[in-house]
Design brief:
heterodimer; A: Recoverin, domain 1; two-stranded antiparallel ribbon; B: Phosphorylase Kinase, domain 1; Transferase(Phosphotransferase), domain 1; TATA-Binding Protein; 6-stranded antiparallel β-sheet; 6-stranded mixed β-sheet; transmembrane (chain B); kinase (chain B); protein serine kinase activity (chain B); nucleotide-binding (chain B); ATP binding (chain B)
């Protein structure tokens, strides 16, 4: 009987598979229920840009970032992989909200630092190797149509490794990364999205569909 | 019996302070920050019944755009199953209208200050393409410092419609420009300026320049007197104030003075202090904010700059410039996607890069302002069309290798990309470095991102 009711509700509200109730997501993240509802509006837009199946596919993600669904980009790929917590090739609503919560201005800085470390650890070896850094610098230069000779790229990488790799083993481990970020805080600026502060104003459509019971919104700060 | 404190989200709801047709306004307190707010409660059923859903959404977006120290701020929007809550800045000083009604006309200097603040707020909205269309002293509130706050920018139409269509069409005709009353298409900017003129007259005189109780008489008056520019100022108006008011209450919207003209008028200019945009507004479209933001990012946090040279940029800082890491584009509702930032590499000494940039910018008729290795280029025009600002900064990425980061700080993105950037780079050809003999291994590049 319960399952039947569940199905009925899903159908009635028109939620696609992969949907999670805002109230649950709000309890795990810095977002309020209303903010999760507002994020659902954004998610719906992103997940229906190519195939309206309630899931963000890689092409849809690229379309949102570059306005071009075929634009391959190393960093966008990495972000997509980290958002795709279940590793099934798509981003579900719950994954979207949980991942974005790291970018919330109130999210712990340690989470932001750790997320970025995982992002730059291309081969998931729990270290950022000099080789990986080189790959990323080259990708960035290429993205901006700036071609530099390989020895110049090596020089740029070497200089940063000198500063970050304090143990001098050719790779940056978790501990060295934290130290490096502490000295260069501008690196984690990209981990904070001011857009997440005013979600309810940016996506006001939720006001008509909110499921929050009257005057019982939990307090968040 | 103990009274229960009701809460909406993080707000503790207090007494009702206002009641409109669609909304009830309550006093509330943010339990986290302790800040007082005004909580507007709109029942969803009413909104649905009057088919105002799209309007509400539009109004919220407008309020979000027009942030200004002299405009009542929209903090947040909340909703439950049956209600919509709009959380606004709480303004404690009451309406300017009541002040005039209770204390009579105000001294000219005080009027000037209110008028300057009003014009600042209105100019800000007009620059964002937003017109109030219902400016009147009842919509002008005073805060505890005696500063003016325009209220209902955006929400006015929504809440006013309550008194039915009757109210919107007849509205407050005493403040409405003649071209609006005559029901022809009108220019929102000129119409708002007219209303500002009537407000100025009203606070200086203590009565309205055009006042009739019934609409037909008012119309007649418009036809006869106002169209001819006939109204009489009281003897206490200074000649300069009079000259400004005459220019504003010009029945012909085409010849009526504009914001720029008002700002240049000697009466307005006296003791004028343009408001500083509040520093928390870090908005890409705000020239100053972006300038400051870039400064934050690279200057204050990076004290490792070499003495006298440009700032160093390490490999990870370079990486963060990737468009693939800029998730704020997910939130971009406008479809005007064109990269806001562009970069080029140079092997010339940084001083030469900056001086070449300055020379090229000046040849393109741009205003240039340089500090250290950062240059702001601006195109300013009288009518705001095609106006934009660009910030360029030079960083050292490797010994004698520099990267210039060029970002649009304000203005139309397409305009920037089409007209400015391409042209700009062509003219800078001699300093932009393109490796010829020692090209990076192309296969490395291709395999990664291209």
């Amino acid at each position: 009987m319960h399952t039947l009711m569940g199905c009925f509700c899903l159908k009635k509200l028109g939620h696609k598979p992969g949907y999670e109730a805002p109230i649950n997501l709000a309890s795990e993240t810095p977002f309020t229920v209303n903010e999760v509802e507002a994020l659902y509006d954004l998610f719906k837009k992103l997940s229906s840009s190519i195939i309206d199946d309630g899931l963000i596919h890689k092409e849809e993600f690229q379309l949102a970032l570059f306005k071009n669904s075929n634009k391959q980009n190393l960093f966008a790929d990495r972000i997509f992989d980290l958002f795709d917590i279940k590793h099934n090739g798509v981003i579900e609503f719950g994954e979207f909200v949980r991942s974005l919560s790291v970018f919330h201005p109130n999210a712990p800085e340690a989470d932001k630092i750790a997320f970025l470390f995982r992002l730059y650890d291309l081969r998931q070896t729990s270290c950022i190797e000099a080789e990986e850094l080189k790959e990323m610098v080259t990708a960035l230069l290429c993205e901006n149509n700036m071609s530099l000779s390989e020895d110049v790229v090596d020089l740029i990488v070497e200089k940063t490794m000198m500063e970050a790799d304090t143990k001098r083993d050719g790779k940056i481990d978790d501990e060295e990364w934290k130290e490096f970020v502490k000295k260069n805080p501008s690196i984690i600026k990209i981990m904070t999205l001011s857009d997440l502060k005013e979600l309810t104003l940016a996506f006001p459509s939720f006001v008509m569909n909110s499921g929050v019971s009257d005057l019982q919104q939990p307090v968040k700060n | 019996m103990r009274k229960k404190t009701r809460t909406v989200g993080k707000y503790e709801v207090g007494r009702t302070i206002g009641q409109g047709t669609f909304a009830k306004v309550k006093f509330a307190r943010n339990s986290v920050s302790g800040e007082s707010v005004a909580l507007k409660v709109l029942p969803k059923a009413t909104i649905l019944k009057h088919r105002m859903v799209d309007q509400i959404k539009r109004e919220i977006s407008i309020m979000k755009i027009v942030r200004h120290p002299n405009i009542v701020r929209l903090h947040e929007v909340l909703a439950s199953r049956t209600k919509i809550y709009i959380i606004l800045e709480f303004i404690s000083g009451g309406e300017l209208f009541d002040k005039i009604v209770h204390c009579g006309r105000l001294p000219e200097n005080e009027c000037r200050r209110y008028f300057q603040q009003l014009i600042d707020a209105v100019a800000h909205c007009h620059s964002k393409g937003v017109y109030h269309r219902d400016l009147k002293p009842e919509n002008l509130l005073l805060d505890s410092y005696g500063d003016l706050k325009v209220s209902d920018f955006g929400l006015s139409a929504l809440l006013q419609q309550g008194v039915g269509l009757l109210h919107t069409t007849c509205g407050t005709p005493n403040y409405v420009a003649p071209e609006v009353l005559s029901n022809q298409g009108y220019d929102g900017a000129a119409a708002d300026i007219w209303s500002c003129g009537v407000i100025l007259f009203f606070i200086m005189a203590g009565y309205l320049p055009f006042y009739e109780i019934d609409i037909p008489t008012l119309y007649k008056k418009f036809n006869v007197q106002i169209s001819a520019g006939q109204f009489s100022s009281p003897f206490w108006f200074s000649p300069e104030a009079n000259s400004l008011i005459k220019k504003i209450l010009d029945p012909n919207p085409k010849t009526r003075i504009q914001i720029e003209g008002i700002k240049k008028h000697p009466w307005f200019k006296k003791n004028y202090l343009p408001v500083k945009p509040s520093e928390e507004e870090v908005n890409l479209d705000d020239v100053r904010a972006v300038f400051d933001d870039i400064e934050d990012q690279y200057v204050s946090e990076q004290s490792v700059a070499k003495e006298g040279g440009p700032l160093m940029m390490n490999a990870f800082e370079m990486i963060t410039l990737s468009q693939g890491l800029n998730l704020s584009s997910l939130f971009d509702r406008q479809q005007d996607y064109v990269k806001r930032q562009t970069r080029f590499v140079s092997r010339k000494p940084p001083r030469d890069i900056i001086s070449s940039v300055e020379a090229v910018a000046e040849s393109m008729g741009l205003k240039v302002h340089t500090r250290n290795y950062k240059t702001r280029l601006e195109r300013i025009s009288a009518n705001k069309v095609g106006e934009f600002a660009v910030v360029l900064e030079v960083f050292e990425v490797a010994p004698s290798l520099f990267m210039a980061d060029v970002r649009k700080a304000s203005g139309d993105t397409l305009e920037y990309h089409k007209q400015f950037y391409k042209n700009f780079c062509t003219k800078l050809e001699n300093i932009i470095w393109k490796p010829t003999e020692d090209v990076a291994n192309p296969s490395v590049l291709r395999s990664l991102t291209c």
